[in-house]
Amino acid sequence: MSSEDHDVVIVGAGIAGLAAAWDLRDLDVVVVEATERPGGRIRSVERGPLWMNLGAHVYGGPESAVGRLLDETGVQATDVPGILTAVSYEGRLIANGPIELYPLRLPFSTSARLEFVKVGLKLRRLVAQYAKVARPVPGEDPAVLQQRMLDFMDDASFTDAIGRMSPEVDAFFRCTLTRGTGEPEEIAAGYGVGYFHLVWNKDDGLGRAIVGGPQRLLDALAAGQRDVRYSTRAVAVRRDGDRVLVDVEGPDGQRTLRAKSVVMSTPSHLTADLVEGLPADLEQALRAIVYGPTTAAAFLTDEEGPQPWDGIYGIATPKRSTSMLFNMANVVSEILPERPKGSSFMVYAPANLGRAIAGLSDEEVLDRFQADLEQVLPGVRGHVVERMIHRVDPGIPFPFVGRGRIQPTLMRPQERIHLAGDYLGSWYAETSAWTGAGAARRARAEVAS
């Protein structure tokens, strides 16, 4: 097996690995990626002024870790202008007014309306508490903030903390909660509350979209690297004195990459499988991470002229095959001089919805998703011109009950082998970006020593 020497090897070309590579691009860095493209679970495909989105779609502000990468790569992002809190329920679409009053306008029973208000008010109080916990302190290490967020209401599930709801009310809240790929009975209560904080307070959470689609950011980060090897799979990672050896298989055959430092940005279970000699508690923590299934789909349409959904970005879709519907075309509504022809929608089926379609073919899933899309937005019927599906494996990690207790073990610095990825926190791409940056800082110090 031939060997090569490098400063740093990065395993995985998702946003965590590419964020690390970006900060180390002045060094001799090689990135190995098992698939044929950069991005991991983040994926989009451009179609003229629109794009078909198949992964992460909203990001933090300019001061966030992703915001820094956007600024440094010159990739354009903009605030999401549309309504995020619309809901389609039993054939009725509500997209304006206070969300607390939605049950008065939806076909709920009287008892369900009272229950909805009661649950909504309780959630509002908890979201206010969470907002204080999640507010960064100037100069604070992101790891400290993340630990505080994970510890919030970490001792019970969302269902245990809020209480069981009637089917009518449960369906409404569940479609928002399962966006994180776990069911309310599985996720930690604080994580569930945090999701409503993101949805109800986009200025404090994830309220920006990447113009042209998020693949633009991943492509820009990858373009900044001299050596990215696609279709190249790491098969073993091990320490060898003051070096790390990474055995890989790819188009050039089998090779051993020797480096002073390695950044592992693979899913937690794969990291545990690949890295030899991990501390027992760290390996146990990596294998304890829970991933929930999700399948995303994108639909491109060709209708012309103003449409009822033009001012809406996000629509909750309870009691359907997907949990949420997003209107990607809304993002460009304030950028282009006039409305483009057609729209682009993203839907997804997470958690139990994802499990329910696991045995279906791609075409069967797309047919099911499209049927629901056309029921939520009847004007789409007859105008779908392209559709795509993206099945995510192993899924997306979510904080389960007690998740905060293993965070110190996961974040404990290791010598020569550094971890990065969204499983190290609860803010998805943002977690990936700041853990990638942290891994890069530690790797740079080792290269310089």
Please characterize this protein's 3D structure.
With 449 residues, this protein is an alpha/beta fold. The protein folds into three domains: 2-40 and 214-290 and 400-448, FAD/NAD(P)-binding domain (3-Layer(bba) Sandwich); 44-84 and 204-212 and 291-397, Alpha-Beta Complex (Polyamine Oxidase, Chain A, domain 2), CATH 3.90.660; 99-201, no CATH class. It is 35% helix and 24% strand. It is built from 15 helices and 18 strands. It has helices spanning 15-23, 65-73, 102-105, 110-133, 142-151, 158-162, 167-177, 189-200, 215-223, 268-274, 280-288, 351-356, 362-376, 407-411, 429-448; strands at residues 2-11, 29-32, 44-47, 50-53, 77-79, 86-89, 92-94, 208-210, 228-229, 233-240, 243-250, 253-264, 291-301, 314-316, 324-327, 344-350, 384-397, 417-419. Strands 1, 2, 9, 10, 11, 12 and 18 form a seven-stranded mixed sheet that branches. Strand 1 (2-11), helix 1 (15-23) and strand 2 (29-32) form a beta-alpha-beta unit. Helix 4 crosses helix 8. The protein starts with a strand and ends with a helix. The model has no long low-confidence stretch (mean pLDDT 94).
What's the layout of helices and strands?
Layout: E1 2-11, H1 15-23, E2 29-32, E3 44-47, E4 50-53, H2 65-73, E5 77-79, E6 86-89, E7 92-94, H3 102-105, H4 110-133, H5 142-151, H6 158-162, H7 167-177, H8 189-200, E8 208-210, H9 215-223, E9 228-229, E10 233-240, E11 243-250, E12 253-264, H10 268-274, H11 280-288, E13 291-301, E14 314-316, E15 324-327, E16 344-350, H12 351-356, H13 362-376, E17 384-397, H14 407-411, E18 417-419, H15 429-448
Helix pairs in contact: 1-15, 4-8, 10-11
